[in-house]
Amino acid sequence: MQAYGAYIYKTVYAVLHSPHDAEDVTQEVLLLIYRSLPNYRMDGLKTWITRIAVNRAIDFKRSKARRPEQLMEQDAVEGQQTEYEAEGMLNALPAPAAESIALRAEELRYIHAKVDELPDHYREVIHAFYIEEKTYEQIAVETGLERKSVESRLYRARNWMRQHWRKEDFE
């Protein structure tokens, strides 16, 4: 514990990004390591400890992500709420802020403007595939191209975008 406690904490914290949760999981990991020592095969102690710590942190993160649903269901049962009351609780969640809606709209306008800069033969397939979310087959039927030609154009269009656009423009 003294030799690897701080190391385990840092490892767990890197996964969870929460000091309180990292402390709890570190304690669990230390107990798990102690209980698992008879199974240790004497090769790479630090690697073995790290693997246990990371796996436990990931498990904790997954279980924490599921908890809000479980708590809501439990509250509904304990408070004997009807379906309609539970739905009312869901509808009471805050709507997205006007600022985030405006930013998203501006971002979409920018993306559409960038797509409009593409050469015509690329713009058509990019717009159909990414914006209209059509399949290769649908695009092929609409454009009169073979499916392989649609795939090729999408591939070439992506290469064209990589060469002509900067990643920073979209961050």
TrEMBL record:
The record's Gene Ontology biological-process terms are:
DNA-templated transcription initiation; response to stress
Keywords of this entry: DNA-binding, Sigma factor, Transcription, Transcription regulation
Boundaries of each RNA polymerase sigma-70 region domain copy?
2-67
Keyword Ribosomal protein attributed: no
Keyword Cell inner membrane tagged? no
Q: Which SUPFAM superfamilies match?
A: Sigma2 domain of RNA polymerase sigma factors (SSF88946), Sigma3 and sigma4 domains of RNA polymerase sigma factors (SSF88659)
Taken from the record, one Pfam family name reads Sigma70_r4_2
List, alphabetically, the InterPro entries matched: RNA_pol_sigma-70-like, RNA_pol_sigma-70_dom, RNA_pol_sigma70_ECF_CS, RNA_pol_sigma70_r2, RNA_pol_sigma70_r4_t2, RNA_pol_sigma_r2, RNA_pol_sigma_r3/r4-like, WH-like_DNA-bd_sf
Q: Which residues form the RNA polymerase sigma factor 70 region 4 type domain?
A: 109-160
* MF annotations from Gene Ontology: DNA binding; sigma factor activity
* Family according to the record: Belongs to the sigma-70 factor family. ECF subfamily.
The protein's matches in NCBIfam families, at most eight in alphabetical order, are given as: sigma70-ECF
- Recorded protein name is RNA polymerase sigma factor
Q: Which organism is it from?
A: Paenibacillus pinisoli
